[in-house]
């Protein structure tokens, strides 16, 4: 090749001319064809073997000269000034080896002052190593990168690629929202893309003050954008039910201080020697280690068959049974401080009941009373502000082991068992504002010892001994049968987790299980979750708590 290079320098035996601007370079077509698929293709398809043939290229003459020297000698000097032009030329001429060398060199040049430019360049020319480096730096230093002039030159697809990433390093979403507004205002033509980009902002994690300011001052908000803002305000209004709203906007970024944790609380476990032993542990699932770890132990006064619900960032335990006697106890557990606190006791002692929270109120529904045969119709409401229980209108029918869930300002009660232990298919709704009960359509099948959860605009009744999975639409008062769980989950809880529904453990005719099944509403399919419970459980509770310091 050294000798061939000397021939080129003397213009001996050259048979093609490369031209860029006014500069012409005599070359040997065989060398160009061996080094570049681009030249191989055009020599095969068009040019004859005539020394007067000329190939015109639109690139800087000095770049073309450097590339020709590289193809003859294998050597080239990469600099800050020429590397971007060389990458563009390599992309045209299909010089993969030289392009790889340029990419390796460019990766060393990326810093916070130029990461936006390299991010755009790497996407354009498929430089994956540069893309990872530049994007990683933009995400890590988002507060700096997002307000640079180069950031404002991103296309809408490039901006969406960034803001949909979970790894943006911000404490809340205010910075992301503001950089999007600045990006749109930079070019009036971008207003047509605003709604598409706006959809990707994690609005529920903006500060309430910023959301209200945006709603009152931003003149680009479409009806869909207003819907996203209202979703965010509703999300912030009731922390205990945030997980019931699932969209691309309600998933926290990894750097937010608030992160979801899955809790498994108490219940009954079984062993080969002694069946149905009280489980005294409250555990949380560690996403890093993929193991269940102990959060706290239940207080000595706690029995079995109690009910636990989320209240803000805390847990509220009500009722239960101990040594055959129904309990009226009420305990509050602060997940952050890991301390239990006694609350005003229930008006009526009960077990095998259900409890749900709504804002600053907790509703306790039905259950069994002092004796096993005493099935309750009574409903109580705890005001957390006043720390006082108030009697609500009785259920139209006494019931225990019902499926209870909140939706809007209403408490829905599905199925359960009556005093004769018969499974029910009734649906009762308590309007908490009017303090009135009403009836809705019966479920397609009787269901008891199952669970109910709210996800977006529907309620799902799942589990139980008969492998139930039903969807109820409150707006139309209609039911839909869905695919069944693969196992039986009697006396097992369900919880919404990252847009899916988990049903954990449970019993029935067979011994208790530790299996967790996951239901995906988008595909109507069940699958095994990543992990089972730490032990075989039934009559336990499972909750989604948004805290990071567990």
Query: Can you count the helices?
Result: 14
- Radius of gyration, Cα only, in angstroms? 33 Å
Q: Within the CATH hierarchy, at the fold level, what is the topology of the largest domain? A: Neuraminidase
Distance between the termini: 66 Å
The biggest sheet, with number of strands, parallel, antiparallel or mixed sense and barrel status, is: 4 strands, antiparallel
CATH superfamily of the largest domain: Kelch-type beta propeller
Helix content: 25-40%
Q: What is the second-level CATH architecture of the largest domain?
A: 6 Propeller
CATH top level class name of the largest domain: Mainly Beta
Relative strand content: 25-35%
Structure description:
The longest helix is centred in the middle third of the chain and has 15 residues, at 223-237. Strands 8-7-4-32 form a four-stranded antiparallel beta sheet, with no helix packed on it. Strands 9-10-13-14 form a four-stranded antiparallel beta sheet, with no helix packed on it. The protein folds into three domains: 2-107, Potassium Channel Kv1.1, Chain A, CATH 3.30.710; 121-244, Serine Threonine Protein Phosphatase 5, Tetratricopeptide repeat; 260-546, Neuraminidase (6 Propeller), CATH 2.120.10. α2 packs across α3, α5 runs antiparallel to α6 and α6 packs parallel to α8 (128-140). It has 550 residues and is α+β, with helices and mostly antiparallel strands. It is elongated and about 110 Å long. Helix content is 25%, strand content 27%. The mean pLDDT is 90.
């Amino acid at each position: 090749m050294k000798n061939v290079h000397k021939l080129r320098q003397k213009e001996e035996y050259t048979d093609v001319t490369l031209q860029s601007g006014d500069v012409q370079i005599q070359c040997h077509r065989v060398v160009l064809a061996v080094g570049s698929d681009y030249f191989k293709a055009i020599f095969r398809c068009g040019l004859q073997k005539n020394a007067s043939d000329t190939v015109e290229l639109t690139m800087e003459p000095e770049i073309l000269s450097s590339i020709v020297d590289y193809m003859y000698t294998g050597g080239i000097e990469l600099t800050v000034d020429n590397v971007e032009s060389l990458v563009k030329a390599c992309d045209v001429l299909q010089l993969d080896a030289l392009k790889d060398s340029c990419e390796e060199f460019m990766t060393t040049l990326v810093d916070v002052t130029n990461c936006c430019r390299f991010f755009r360049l790497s996407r354009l020319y498929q430089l994956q190593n540069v893309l990872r480096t530049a994007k990683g730096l933009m995400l890590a230093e988002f507060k700096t990168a997002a307000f640079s002039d180069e950031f404002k030159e991103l296309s809408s697809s490039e901006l969406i690629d960034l803001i949909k990433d979970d790894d943006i390093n911000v404490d809340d979403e205010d910075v992301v929202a503001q950089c999007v507004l600045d990006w749109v205002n930079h070019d009036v033509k971008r207003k047509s893309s605003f709604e598409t980009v706006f959809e990707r902002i994690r609005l529920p994690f903006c500060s309430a003050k910023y959301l209200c300011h945006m709603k009152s001052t931003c003149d680009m908000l479409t009806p869909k954008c207003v819907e996203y803002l209202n979703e965010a305000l509703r999300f912030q209004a009731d922390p205990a039910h945030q997980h019931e709203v699932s969209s691309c906007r309600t998933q926290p970024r990894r750097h937010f201080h608030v992160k979801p944790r899955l809790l498994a609380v108490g219940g009954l476990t079984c062993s080969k020697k002694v069946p149905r032993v009280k489980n005294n542990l409250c555990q949380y699932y560690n996403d890093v280690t993929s193991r269940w770890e102990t959060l706290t132990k239940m207080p000595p006064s706690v029995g079995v068959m109690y009910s636990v619900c989320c209240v803000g960032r805390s847990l509220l335990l009500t009722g239960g049974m101990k040594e055959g006697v129904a309990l009226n106890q009420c305990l509050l557990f602060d997940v952050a401080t890991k301390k239990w606190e006694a609350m005003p006791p229930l008006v009526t002692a009960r077990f095998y009941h259900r409890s749900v929270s709504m804002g600053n109120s907790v509703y306790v529904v039905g259950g069994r009373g002092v004796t096993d045969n005493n099935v309750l119709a009574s409903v109580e409401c705890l005001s957390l502000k006043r720390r006082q229980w108030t009697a609500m209108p009785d259920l139209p029918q006494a019931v225990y082991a019902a499926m209870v869930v909140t939706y809007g300002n209403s408490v829905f009660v599905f199925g359960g068992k009556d005093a004769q232990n018969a499974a029910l298919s009734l649906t009762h709704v308590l309007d908490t504002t009017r303090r009135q009960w009403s009836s809705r359509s019966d479920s397609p099948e009787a269901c008891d010892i199952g669970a109910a959860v709210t996800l977006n605009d529907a309620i799902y009744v799942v589990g139980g001994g008969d492998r139930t999975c039903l969807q109820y639409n409150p707006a139309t008062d209609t039911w839909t049968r869905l695919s069944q769980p693969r196992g039986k989950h009697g006396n097992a809880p369900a919880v919404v987790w990252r847009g899916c529904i988990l049903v954990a453990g449970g019993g029935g005719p067979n011994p208790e299980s530790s299996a967790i099944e996951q239901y995906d509403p988008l595909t109507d399919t069940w699958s095994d979750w990543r992990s089972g419970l730490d032990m075989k459980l039934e009559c336990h509770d499972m909750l989604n708590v948004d805290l990071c310091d567990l």
